[in-house]
What does this fold into?
Amino acid sequence: MLSTDRPAEVAVLSGRLRAAVTRLNRRLRAGALGGISPAQASALAMIERLGSPALSELAAAEQVRPPSMTRVVDALEGEGLVARTTDPVDRRCQRVALTSSGRRALASIRSRKSAFLEPRLARLGKSQLATLTAAVGILEQLAEEE
It folds into this structure.
């Protein structure tokens, strides 16, 4: 078990984790996005998560500037994957929501990524699967921290 009393070990683990997550993410994205960019796929997933966010909320959640998010949403809208609406309370505010095509595209991306992972996970032993299950919980926790 590592502790913060051993900063060198934590630094090594940090580097290994970063590299492994980056490589795995790259492999998951390769061929799974169905012709949309990683930024567009990420925006689709965030729109689903947030419901019908304002463009400014979506930009903040994706940690990009509003003009960049506007370009991403423009492209998604052009593909029929999202639709914009005017906020009924603040008419100056635009909200964005997934269309049925957007939901299908997101489901397809997730399905292709799962198809990549599932046979690899099936080759693991019970002990490795138990360890990975615990690690996934920790990774989810780290991903949610601000």
Summary: The chain has a mean pLDDT of 92. The domain at 31-144 is CATH 1.10.10.10 (Arc Repressor Mutant, subunit A). The longest strand covers residues 82-86. The beta strands are 82-86, 94-98.
